[in-house]
Amino acid sequence: MRPSDFDRIVERACARIPARFRKRLKNIAIVVEPEPTREQLARMAQPGSTLLGLYEGRPLIHRSVFESFSMPDRILIFQGPHERAARSLEHLEKLVEDTVWHEVAHYFGLDERRVRAAEERRRGGIGSPLDRRRR
To answer: What is the pTM of this model?
Structure first.
């Protein structure tokens, strides 16, 4: 898939974030990268797992109104791992949407355990293959 086509999938996923959350996303860049770097994989992923996305920054709940300007936080969405994991275009769109939600939850301060619990509630159950994949 061309990078521009994948970018549009990410844009659609971002547009589906409810307005009450989207309007609170401040000073954050959502960036598409082809693949995670070795350093990102070594830092974040379990051996043999897939890294679909990554939040880099200081979560909203740990910020102060007294802080001066800072560089934007980043949500990285990795195209290659998504394409390899997807069974169809529809599945790819769903994977990207889930990854965007996952990383946005980290921006709002949820740790991995709480993000997983929120994902399970959002999906309405358990047993999804994404429950076993670290992003």
So the answer is: 0.79
